[in-house]
Specification:
Number of strands: 0
Shape: elongated
Distance between the termini: 70 Å
Largest sheet: none
Helix content: over 70%
Radius of gyration: 20 Å
CATH architecture: Up-down Bundle
Low-confidence stretches: none
CATH class: Mainly Alpha
CATH topology: Chorismate Mutase Domain, subunit A
Number of helices: 3
Number of domains: 1
Mean pLDDT: 93
Strand content: under 5%
Length: 105
């Protein structure tokens, strides 16, 4: 039997949870950096009169992410769904930026 920590949680479980918490924090910071970059892309697209979405790039990114997922032993379907969620949010931001720019003119 494994000895429990003061909170009644086995040490290995507490260690794993702490690791997960650190990974979650890193993901939040990485996502924040990603969205800072995509916001700048949205501004550039609006300035250049480009559409908020780029289906060709999205297809390339999906294929790339699926390959990376396979290499990392992560379910490619999950990776694609995750990317689709991110891209949908980015496109929404780009549409808002384009609308704001058009109203300033």
């Amino acid at each position: 039997m494994t000895e429990a920590s003061p909170g009644g949680v086995p040490p290995e479980l507490a260690r794993l949870r702490h690791s997960i918490d650190n990974i979650d924090a890193a993901l939040v910071h990485i996502l924040a950096e990603r969205f800072k970059a995509t916001q700048r892309v949205g501004v550039l697209k609006a300035e250049l009169g480009l559409p908020p979405s780029d289906l060709e790039r999205e297809a390339v990114q999906i294929a790339r992410l699926r390959a990376l997922a396979r290499e990392a032993d992560l379910d490619p379907e999950f990776a694609e769904k995750f990317l689709a969620f991110l891209v949908a949010e980015v496109i929404r931001h780009h549409e808002e930026i384009a609308l704001d720019r058009s109203q300033q003119v």
